[in-house]
Amino acid sequence: MSITRDVSVSVSEVMNGRASQSPRARCPAPFLLKTFDLLEEEEGEGNERDGRRRRIVSWNEDGNGFVVWSVQEFSEFILPKYFKHNNFSSFIRQLNTYGFKKSAPNRWEFQHEKFQKGNKHLLVEITRKKCEPSVFPSFLKAYTKDSAADVEENNHLLLEENKNLRKEKLELQMQIAQFKALEIKLLDCLSQNMGSQSKVRRTC
């Protein structure tokens, strides 16, 4: 009985050990892998292209977070390449579900203590937060608010530009009218001059 029990315990310990080392159990979330890989790959391509890509997205100076330098280009070029969509709001919602924090007030910089440059093995320690219906990241609210403000500002600029174009159009129409009046005067003068020359010839 003792031998059977010892064998059972040993088998159980071996099975538990294998289970704890199972690659499937220790695999990072696909979203985290893609985000990590895009930073590594895009930064490498940026170095090859004299930093052109670096200004879209890159690791921060300390390597403990990353910065989206251009939201428009990131949404247009990077997101479709790695995530098959171009929705920046959806991307930062995903970051929030894994506990990332916006770490700079004046730029889109995100950090997580387990998300570090060169330490891909730490990704397995990042877990998804429990879903809460009321959760809506503050930095996403700020992004939505800023976007609405940008749209309003753009509309105002377009209205001003439209007003200026109308003003320029009226000025051009007035100039055209003046040129036409001048043209008529020149034609009259030319006609009178030709008439005078004709009379002189007849007299001669």
UniProtKB/TrEMBL annotation:
What is the species listed in this Swiss-Prot or TrEMBL entry? Tetracentron sinense
Q: Source taxonomy lineage? A: Eukaryota, Viridiplantae, Streptophyta, Embryophyta, Tracheophyta
Q: Which InterPro entries match?
A: HSF_DNA-bd, WH-like_DNA-bd_sf, WH_DNA-bd_sf
Q: What is this protein called?
A: HSF-type DNA-binding domain-containing protein
Keyword Nucleus recorded: yes
**Where would one find coiled-coil regions in this protein?**
148-182
Q: Which SUPFAM superfamilies match?
A: Winged helix' DNA-binding domain (SSF46785)
| Highest taxon listed in the record's lineage | Eukaryota
Annotated family? Belongs to the HSF family.
